[in-house]
Amino acid sequence: MTEFRIAATFTSALARLEASEQKAAKTTAFDLQMDPAAPGLRFHRIDRSRDPHFWSIRVSGDLRIIVHKTEANFLLAYVGHHDDAYGWAERRRIEAHPRTGAIQIVEVRERVEDIAAPPPPAAPAPPAQIFRALSTEDLSGIGVPLDWVEDVRSATEDAFLALSDHLPAEASEALLEYVTTGRLPRPAPIAAPADPFAHPDALRRFRIVENQEALALALDAPWEQWAVFLHPAQRGIVDRNYNGPARTAGSAGTGKTVVALHRAARLARTTPEAKVLLTTFSRPLANALSRKLAVLFGEDTALARRVTVAPWHTVADELHQLAFGRRAVVASDEQVEDAVAKSVDAVGVKGFTLRFLLSEWRHVVDAWQIADVAAYAKVPRLGRKNRMSAGQRERLWPVFVAVRASLAKRGLATWADINGRVAAHYAARDVKPFTHIVVDEAQDLGVSELRFLAAISPKSQDALFFAGDQGQRIFQQPFSWSALGIDVRGRSSTLNVNYRTSHQIRRTADRLLPSTVRDVDGNADERDRTVSVFNGPPPEVLLFDTQQEEAAAVAAWIGRTRAEGIHPSEIALFVRTRDELGRARAAIEATGLSWLELSDRDQDASGQVLVGTMHLAKGLEFKAVGVIACDDGILPLQSRLEGVADETELDDVYETERHLFYVACTRARDRLLITAVRPASEYIQDLGAALPT
After folding, report:
1. What is the 3-state secondary structure (H, E, C) of 596-616?
2. pTM of the full predicted structure?
3. Which of 41, 94, 482, 595 would be 588's cystine partner, CB 3.0–4.6 Å?
4. Burial zone of 492 (CB within 10 Å; 0-12 exposed, 13-18 middle, 19+ buried)
């Protein structure tokens, strides 16, 4: 019986086509699955291919599907316009690797030209060949095709980035691990399966499609499937059991969210009684996590019911209603500021600015939920430049008592209040609402949120898992996790391979941050060891004299991006605040496309370019991103700079604004555009080589 299979190369190529072309290609794919011998399907052998089993099938016009057919297997391998499709097939063969036994799509070496740029002519010495110490046996053992072994052994670090695009994924990933760690992974011996398609490495790129429903699922979500694919380097973190709180770190694009998703799914699968919470800081990101989790679970609704996906504030709100029978009303920033100002007047405290007292309330008294003056005297004031004596704290304490009383009288609470009440309620109970909690974007947890999550999770194996990046902290001031009983030392890991962002985009964005970022407890994120797995065009950085010129240039960039086959829903424009959204909308409207603004609602962006603020960009990913309106006074935001209470807080504002810019830039996979109207943000200067001349 012939098995009908689909290759990852087919779904990737399909995603690059226009919507009408995709529809036609899918129709032909369904026809092929129903009856490959149907009279209307005309097969043409690829005469110049080194593999005699490659055939083309006309879809419409010059659109072609490339299939690989043998007596045992019928494989959808590629789809594209005539010359592109034929060229792809002529450069490839499909065969079982002689050492690993896994079926591979191998690019024919002698038909590949200019796979790496030559070294600079002025180089004083030839670049080091980073894999020269590896033998043919070493390289074939990780799946390098034999006719590529010498190219790998001769590769320099720069050449390898280009070379890796031509190698099977398992070989590229093993070599990347060797580059970043100095260790070549040794795959566990696997008994050679009778069917080379059954090898674990082959299962990553080929799948059997048993019916039309399964084929439709495979063809309808290629981008989502890419976004949740778990690479072997991440598997160990997902499968490991931890006897205490654990954390995985890594710069943008290294797969922290993918690890969090798969860990939540693994806990749900392996524990029938599991109540897993997958949580993050915002509703848009929680919605994105829900969609990706649905891809992992498929139609298994029983597994899906074991996982709750929600922002941590939503979870706190719902648990507060369950515990106390009422919903808390959250005070706005304006209401809190009004309460502080009136309390200062009522108490009559002199010698402190309103700005300082508001900051002290938000970052110390409310954040740590300080109950009395004795606790206020002892609380750590990390990140607070102004030292305060015991006498000064005693003078200020009546102000904060009055603030609390004022909010309570109006029936208002802060999120720290809500988190504290729920934490106290569940800390005294043995039965917790969740058996496991997985936290994405954990760097933006505050003191009260961390206490809350610790209180609603059991003291058992695998109860708390955090994924985050200190370089993307944009909301909270730093504080000690271990001081709250959450110590991840010894249970912390770092991801160093960037699967999402091109080498060029990652290298440019990394100039915004230091090579090492440490938290208060001394845990270090070593960012300079990160390596991207693919190349792309360099980011464009453009400066203008007027907003009209900027809008025209952004519109032209969107047009070029669309011409490259990127769909509108895979393009996003980000700005610093809502005040700049009009500049993004104007650019999109100039192209004739429609736009959709990111919000807390779960939205369908089909056919629309997404626009939003940089804060809502966190955790999302797009093939093309424009970060626009990066003007002086907007980035960093002038109102934040004017609202700081001391020099240390000013430093933190500059740092978090820089992190925000980094977050927005690293949402891009393939294309990145950065624009500003002169004078531009000082951060653009840090992009260095990417600056326009």
Report:
1. EECCCCCCCCCCEEEEEEHHH
2. 0.73
3. 595
4. middle
